[in-house]
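Risk register update: the risk of archive-format incompatibility is retired. Evidence:
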Amino acid sequence: MSDKNIRTSRSLAPTDADSEVVVQGWAQDIRNLGGISFLQLRDRYGIIQITAPKKKTDPQVMDAITSLSRESVVRVTGTAKASDQAKGGVEVLPTHFEVISAAATPLPMGVIDKVNVEADTRYDHRFMDLRKPETRAIFEIKSTVLSLIDEYLVNNGFTEVFTPKLVASGAEGGATLFELRYFDQNAYLAQSPQLYKQMLMSTGLDKVFEIGPAFRAEPSDTTRHVSEFISFDGEMAFIESQRDVQVMIEGCMQSVIGGVIERCKGQLELLGVDVALPKAPYPTLTYESAVEMVNAEGMNIPLGEDLGTEGERLLGNIMARQGSEMYWIVEYPDEAKPFYIMEKEGTPYSYSFDLDYKGQEISSGGQREHRYDNLVSRMEKKGLDPASFNFYLEAFKFGMPAHGGWGLGVERLIQKMLDLPNIREAILFPRDRIRLVP
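Archived output:
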C-alpha cells in the first residue's frame, strides 16, 4: 500500500469514492447494531466514519471492530464510499483492520463523554485530556502565537538569543528563587533573562529577544500564578525613552492577536471564543491615576502599594466600559521596582510600565539604568551587594547605551486572549506548589 493511499479526516474527500484508502487514528466511538457496525475514527483533524455491514465485511474484520475498546489506535484499509450521513460526505468500508495498540479499560477519563472532569484529574492524565479537540486547540493557538512573536521581532531587526537557566544569582530577588546544588556551589533556576539581555546591549546586537522557560518559587495557589512558565523577553538599545519599548510591544501584540484571528479560525470556533483585536494605540494611565480610579469605585489602596489581583480586575472592568481591553500603567513607585529600572529623578516614581489585558498584568518593563555609578548606587539602595553582580556590572563599565525592555508571560497572554479560567489550561504539564508530575 503506497503512502499516496493514506488519508486523514482533512484530506479524505468525495473524489476518493470507490478508491482504496488507508486511515489511522483512535477509536473514539463504536456502535454495534447487529447487522452493521459503525466506528468513529478520530485523527488530528477530525472524524472519519468506518461503516461495516455484516454481510459485506470479512468476519475477522467484523470481529476486530465489535471487540474493540474505545481509544485503541487502529489502521484501517478500505474502500471510500460517498455517504450523505457521514461527516465530509465520505465513509470507509473496511477490508483490512489492524489494531496497533489496544486501549486498556476502564479509561482514566472520557474523551467525548458529556461529564465534567475535575481539573486535577485532567492534569494527572494530560495525554488523555489532549485527545479532546478543544484542549488541543489551545496549544495549536499557543504554537501560532509563538510563531507570530518570532516573525514580528525578526522582521523588526531583533536577534533571537538563549540565555542560561542555571544562574549564580537572581535579578528579581531571593524570595522567589529555586535553589539547587551545582557541583560544589549553590545555583538557582533563572527567574528571567534580565541580567543577560541587558549585558547583550553592550555588544552591538542592539535588539534581542528570548522565548524560554522562567521559574518563580511563588507559593501562590491562584488562577494566574505557576512555578514554571514561558517568558517572552526583549531588550532594545539606543532608546530615547521607555515609550520606544512600549511602541514595539504594542505593535507585536497587534500583530500576534490579529494573526491568531486570521490563522486560527477553526480552533477559535471549536473553543467558542470570539477574539477581538484591541483598539490601538492603547490608553496610558499613570500608576497614581489607576489607584485613584479603583479607589473611586470602592477600593482602598494606599499610594505606593500594588494594585493587586482585585485592583487589576476592577481596573479592567473600568477600562472595558471605556472600550479598552489593553492599556498601559506607567510610572510605578520606584520603591516597588527592581534596581535595574531607572528612577524618575526628583520624584518617587520610575520609568516603568505594565501592560494589562482584560484586567490582568501580562507584561512589565521600562527604561533601564545604564549609568554604572547610578546602577551600583541603586543596588545598594535596594539592599543588594554589588560584588555579587560583578559579571553583570562589568558590561556597564565599558560603554553601555541607553536601553529598555520587557518581560511578557506567554501563558497569561493566552489565558486572557481565550478567556481561560486558569493559566494552567495554557500549559501542557503545569508546575505549581503541589504539582511536579506528570
